[in-house]
Structures are given as structure tokens and as C-alpha cells.
Amino acid sequence: MTAAAILADWISGTRPQDLSDEVKHAVGRHLLDGVGVTIAAARLGAGAPGWTVAHDLAGPPQARALTGEESLSAPAAAMATAMLEHALDFDDTHAGGLVHPTVTVLPAAFAVGQERSASGEQVLAAAALGLETVCRLGTVSPHGFHARGLHATAVVGPLAAAMTAGRLMGLPAARLVDALGIAGSSAGGLLEFLDSAADTKSLHPGSAAFSGVTAARLAAAGASGPPSVLEGKRGVYAALSERAADLGVLTDDLGVRWEATQIGIKPYPSCQLMHVTLDAVSAAVAGVAVDPAEIVDIEVHVHPDSSPIVCGDHTGTAPPRSTYDAKFDLPWSVAALLHDGAVTIDTYTPESITRDSVAATATAVRVLPAPAAGPAAAAPGRAVLTLRDGRTLTGEVAGSKGTPAVPMTDAELRAKFAGNCGGHARAGDLAGRILDLSAETDLTVVHDLAHLIATARPANET
User: Fold this and answer.
1) Using one digit for the tens of pLDDT, what is the confidence trace for 407-438?
2) Is residue 419 a part of any domain in this protein?
3) pLDDT at residue 120 in the model
4) How many independent structural domains does the chain possess?
5) Who has the most CB within 10 Å: 73, 205, 436, 440?
């Protein structure tokens, strides 16, 4: 059997009752986080181009995009939700695969779930299987897609979305294999945005969601895809990865070992690869009053796989070229942390990124390569700050906050969700429903509440 066939057999044969409480709770946490960052993006007006285009595509009224009111075709709804969910770069990350799992799965699950009038239990099961798929597909070749200049989420996202949609559509294993084969031809996503002010990365999940849901539909209609889409000599890994691929990582212990329980939740709305450095800098200045103007040197130790993405030639030498560019500028983000005491959604506004004082502090950042065993997103962090009076402050962390090494508690996740909802009075109700999604008869109330919260006027507006 091909790897696609093994995966498809598992996806089609797994029942909701086969999922452990641990897996269901983990999936609920990530759906909650995904809904929260989507609401935050909608509240802030982010992701508008993708939202506009998806609604222009419209189609038969099958599903609403999350936070939306108008019914669209399921592929268009999935596209709109995905682009909104990733617009702030505040969504979760799986370190081993260096992928954003939930943004490839939630949009397809919620869109097709509405189209098919699926129960909360059915949507939760499809999301669990989709999350496991995307995490394993990325981990087959760690950092291999990024090393080739491709965004891993955009490479494996169409395949995960296809499996999520296909599961809710009730496709048999053979048709799921076709869906994987078809979706593989949509795999891509250039990292060229790193050398410009472009925000194309935020658009990648939308394309993945649209392509994945469409691939499942094409397979259901009788279109075929190559069963060797993964291991073939012209398959996904041979064509798109710079590093060796181990397909056993995808197919071994399915249903026994769950990568979906190893997904990290972001405390900062920026690239995951800089989070451990931000935590190390925070540790260095904890309990110490530091005037950024008195810092003469900021030495940070960064994994070699992270440096090309968050420490490019432009970083630390000039202000960020756009708000999205700032999210991939480690020196500037470190400087903003030192000036503001935190990195939040407000850190990456058009007004914030033009501050001369922050740009000046960013020039003091020196990046030292720090190879470490394991993936870059799970590497330890170290920072040494030297002050004008000769004092040094050192911070070291074993991993970044929110990762499996330093997990975010349920209470902390709920606090993040409430913040993303702007403190809305109904945020707790929505959180409870998502964390207990299996009890929902369908997705109607979840979508109604998300729309209500996302479109509410701030309390300080009259």
C-alpha cells in the first residue's frame, strides 16, 4: 500500500468514539484558539482582501465563513476563514513539522460541516484526523520545505484540508486517496515575501483550504489522483523538499501516537521561530528596570534554521517594511519587547512599527548561531544584554511558552481567547461551546456567537 492509502484507510475507518479524552480535549483547545485569532483579525479589519475575494466568489449558499453572515459555497467559505485566521500570524504551530495546523483544518471542517449539517461530534472527529494529518505530513521532512524556499503550511495544507473535507463528506478510502493525489498538485507557497513588504504568507492557508475542499469534491465526482503522490519520484517530497523524507513518520502508529497533542499555542502574534528569543529576553530583564537607551548590546542565540526566516538581511538595519514584515523581524520585535514590556497585537500596528526609538534599539541586536538537536521551533533560547554601565543581564529558556515543553494552561488559553474577543461578555459562552463541541447538534450557535463578537462595537465607542 502507498502512504496515501494507509493514511486514507485510517481516516475513513476511525470512529469518533475511538478518540481518547486527551485527544478530544487537545483538538478542542486548538479549535478554540483558531476561532479566537479569527475573531481578533475580523475585529481589527485584517485579512480584508482575501475576505472580499471569497465573498465575491460566493456560489451556492452552503456555509458561512467564520465571523461572517453571508452564506457562500463551502470552498469559498473555507478560503475566507483561513485567510482571516492566519492574518495576524497568531495561530498555532507544530514544531516538528513547522506547520500551522489548525488554519489548514478548521476552515475546511467548519465550512463542510455546515454544508453537510454535521454534528459537533462529527466536526470534532474530522478536525482531529485533519490535525494529525497535517502535523505528520510536515514532520516527514523537518524543515525540508522551508529549506527549498516554500511555506510548509501551504505545501501540506491542501492535503490536510482535503482529508478533513473528505471525512465529513463520507468519502471511502479509495476516494480519499484520489483527493490526496489531486490536492498534492496544489501544494506550494513561496517564501519570497521574506524579502519584501508583501503579506502573501497570510494568503497561503486560504488557497490551501480552497484547493483542499475542491480536491475532495473532485474525487467525489470521479476525478482521480496519483496514489504515489507522497513517495513518488515526482511526488510532494521529491519535488518540494530539500531534505530527506521518512514516510514512516506519517504511517506508523496511527491512532496510537498523536502529534495533534503536540501542537504549540502562540502567546505572541509573530513568527513562531522568534518566540523563544522573546522569552529569553523577557527572562533576562525579569525584575530589573531597564532603560532601552542604556542597552549597548543584545546578544541572542538563534537556531540556524530560524535565522534565514526571522533574521534576514533587512532585519535590525531599518524599520520593518510593513506590519507583516515586522512579525518576521526578530531584532525589531526584541526591541519592541524591551520598550513596551510585552509583544501583543498592538505591537504590530502601522503606527508602532515606525517608532525611531525601537528601530534604534534593534540595531544593537547581534545574532549568534546556536545549533541544537531537534526542530528549530522547539530549540532553547539564550539572550545576553549589556548595559552602558557594564552590567550584563542573561536570560535562558529551554523552550518557548505555549509549546509542549512549556504548555499554555487552559486558563491561559481562555485568557488569550477572551483578549482576542475584546473582552466581549459572550466570549465565555462561545469558549465553552467550542471546548465541548461534541455536545453541539450543529455549528449554528458557534457561528452566530463568532459573528456577534467579531462585529460588536468596542465598549469605548458610542
Assistant:
1) 999 999 999 999 999 999 999 999 999 999 99
2) no
3) 98
4) 2
5) 205
Average pLDDT over residues 144-149: 97
Closest by Cα among 207, 204, 208 to 163: 208
Looking at the structure, tell me whether residues 177 and 277 fall in a common domain.
no
| Domain membership of residue 239 as a residue range | 3-262
pLDDT, one tens digit per residue, over 75-134 is 999 999 999 999 999 999 999 999 999 999 999 999 999 999 999 999 999 999 999 999
Q: Please, what is the end-to-end C-alpha distance for the chain in angstroms? A: 63
Give me the residue label for grid cell 472527529: 125
How many helices and strands, by DSSP H and E, does the chain display?
20, 6
Q: Which of 80, 40, 67 is nearest to 203 (CA)?
A: 80
CATH at residue 310: 3.30.1330.120
Nearest 5°: the CA angle 400, 406, 408 is 100
User: Do both 251 and 339 map to the same domain?
Assistant: no
Mean pLDDT of 147-161: 98
DSSP secondary structure letter of residue 381: E
Pull the grid cell for residue 120. 459537533
Residue 302: φ, ψ to 5°: -125, 135
Distance from C-alpha of 199 to C-alpha of 201, rounded to nearest angstrom: 5
Q: What is the pLDDT of residues 5-50, one digit of tens each?
A: 999 999 999 999 999 999 999 999 999 999 999 999 999 999 999 9
Residue 13 covered by a domain = yes
Amino acid at 175: R
Residues 268, 329 contacting (CB under 8 angstroms): no
Rounded Cα distance between 47 and 81, Å, is 9
Confidence band of 462 (pLDDT split at 50, 70, 90): very low
Nearest-5° angle of CA 48, CA 49, CA 50?
95
How many whole angstroms separate alpha carbon 265 and alpha carbon 462?
35
Banded pLDDT at 459 (limits 50, 70, 90): low
Angle at 87 between CA 28 and CA 446, to 5 degrees: 35
C-alpha closest to that of 272 among 215, 341, 343, 196: 343
DSSP one-letter code for 94: B
Q: What is the pLDDT of residues 234-250, one digit of tens each?
A: 999 999 999 999 999 99
Q: Please name which of 375, 452, 433 lies closest in space to residue 123, comparing C-alpha atoms.
A: 433
Taking the model in full, what pTM does it have?
Answer: 0.96
